[in-house]
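Researcher: Next sequence.
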Amino acid sequence: MRVEKGYKPLVIDKNLCKYAEVHVKKMVEKNSLYHSKMSDLRKVNSGTNLVGENIAWGQDNEESVVNSWMWSPRHRWNILGTGYKKVGFGMILDKNERKYWCTVFSD
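Model: Next structure:
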């Protein structure tokens, strides 16, 4: 999506992926959709200044969740943000097989 819009692609970062995976597990455990503290996100990559996070639940696949985020100005900004260089993804099913999603972004 970024490349189609003329932006550089993001690099998948293993630390951000681990963080996103842990965060979706916590959301499932609490049966709640909530954002991380920005200070926690900044700790994942020390020295980072710019971080963002998109979360969602219930979408069936990657295309569906990205499309829903693109309709939200803040989530869209995270996806297309020119200051971001790295990204991490997490997804988990709850006991009812609903998908919880988390994508984190960093400079």
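Model: Residues 33 and 95 are 15 Å apart (CA to CA). The mean pLDDT is 91.
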